[in-house]
Design a protein that fits this description.
Blueprint (H helix, E strand, L loop, with lengths): L4 H11 L8 E2 L2 H7 L2 E6 L9 H16 L8 E5 L3 H13 L2 E7 L4 H9 L3 E5 L3 H15 L2 E2 L6 H17 L5 E5 L4 H13 L4 E7 L4 H8 L22 H10 L2 E5 L1 H14 L6 H11 L9 E6 L22
Parallel strand pairs: 2-10, 3-4, 3-6, 4-5, 7-8, 7-10, 8-9
Antiparallel strand pairs: 1-2
Length: about 325
Amino acid sequence: MLPVFTDVVAAAGRLEGRVIHTPVMSSERFDARVGRKVLLKCENLQHIGAFKFRGALNTLLQLEAAAAADPASSRLVATHSSGNHGAALARAARELGWRCWVVTPNDASPAKLANITAEGATLRHCEPGLGPREAALAEIVAQTGADVVHPFDDARVIAGQGTAALELLSTHSSIDVISTPVGGGGLLSGTALAARGVVPSCRVIGVEPKVADDAARSFHSGVRVGMSGSPPTIADGLRGSLGVLPFEIFKNHVDDVLTVEEAAIVQAMRIALEDFRVLIEPSSAVVLAAILDGRLGKPGETIGVIVSGGNVDLSVCPFLSGERSVRAS
């Protein structure tokens, strides 16, 4: 069943006091660059460094309520993740006294794998791509009876992710456009539900890498298409395929999905560091890249951006590892 706005509101109540009400940042320098007022909802400062903790904890709290009435419950959860969702689920499980398995692709960021391990999860590696990830997860569930918490195709997860936008729009109702990165679509779909419930006139726009454009192709064709293999983008958190539930929400509540080039993503990371003094993931930087290109929002408008995370693998970011950044043309 698809989540609705009231599910986002219920999730916010469930998470109150358990998640960080992350700050909203602005930069006069950045606004002058782009001719728009840009507000960053800094989920890079959330627990585990990403918005993913919201959806994971919202789901675990509901599983815990059910387990309290079931003495036979294993209190074990499992998922597949390239990084942030795995760390988020592991932390939520640890806080509630559950165990956690995470299937991770071999090409996952070492920094993000370290975060998952640090939160206490048991890892199982697999080949890149959605197929191998889901097959490995199915084996774990068959062997352990774990409850699956999907990274984006779960109504409870989507509702939890929407609470970041709910916080932003509840205090900044003049926002004309709200935008998030798109991987599996959980953040954008949850954001869309929040926007339609709080500021119905606000346009909802997603952004993804051009080399991982399944969400854009799905949105514009009206037919959901999957991603084969692991696309070669620096935005490692956006390599997954668009989910079934998010796509259904997109069709009714999302206004557009844009794509950006790899060089523009790296340049946007650098400008975020220069103008906002924050280090954000490549996956977060796709939205700023679209704003810098002049394709997101209109001159004079106010744009709300959900900064999805800040877990950066410093070894692969050119301007942080000592290489000269290639400026986007």
